[in-house]
Amino acid sequence: MKKLLAYMLHYSMVLAEASPKILRVYRYGNTLLVKHWVNIYQKNGLPGWQKFWIPVFGEWGKVRGPLLAKKINIDTQCPRSLGSYHDFEDPIFGIAGHWEQGENGEPVRVETQCTACELLQAATDNKQCHSDFCRFMVKELEQNTGASLNELYEVEILDLLVEGKDTYRFVHRINNQIE
Q1: pLDDT greater than 80 at residue 176
Q2: Closest C-alpha among 43, 34, 40 to residue 138
């Protein structure tokens, strides 16, 4: 069931990229999903997501990694290229961002606006829910996307808009390798 849902999440995103009409439906569906996730969190906290949704996000990452590698020509030995799934997904998810270089030369995805963040904040005042969504669900998706292409891949989330920072900051690396 989790793997099937992972495929559905991936291919609905691919369809949304291809059609403005489907993109509108996709984003509306995301609004409903965020409300669903908030309801689960309010009833069961993080363990409610750990039972089903975090594993689904992990499967989604594993499913989409190889498919995105072909679609956007990812170099699996380059951390910046491995993180280029942001370049594919961010416009679909309604995220604004750019790339910077970290202090150690590592590629850092900096996101300045996030629709999911806004939806979470509108759905609940629970700040821990906001943080847990990014630190567990988003992290699981991104980590598994990159690791499905290179087992030494790591993504680290430094800052979150939902925690009052000015940006989201995602550091991409391969086994502490600097690009």
Answers
A1: no
A2: 34
Contacting residues for 124 by C-beta, under 8 A, at least 6 apart: 38, 41, 42, 130
SS3 177: strand
Q: Which pTM was predicted?
A: 0.93
Residue 79 structure tokens: 């951390």
The tokens describing 166, both together, are: 């000015």
Give all strands (DSSP E) within 51-160, no chain letters.
Answer: 95-101, 107-114, 153-159
pLDDT tens, 75-96? Answer: 999 999 999 999 999 999 999 9
How many CA atoms lie less than 13 Å away from 64 in the CB half-sphere?
31
How many whole angstroms separate alpha carbon 169 and alpha carbon 32?
26
Report the alpha-carbon distance of residue 29 to residue 23 in Å, rounded: 10
> pLDDT band for position 175 (50/70/90)?
confident
Exposure class string for 80-98: b at 16+ Cβ within 10 A, else e: bbbbbbbebbbebbbbebe
> Per DSSP, which regions of the chain are E strands?
95-101, 107-114, 153-159, 168-174
Tens digits of per-residue pLDDT, 159-168?
A: 999 898 999 9
Gap between the terminal Cα atoms of the chain:
37
SS3 category, 168:
strand
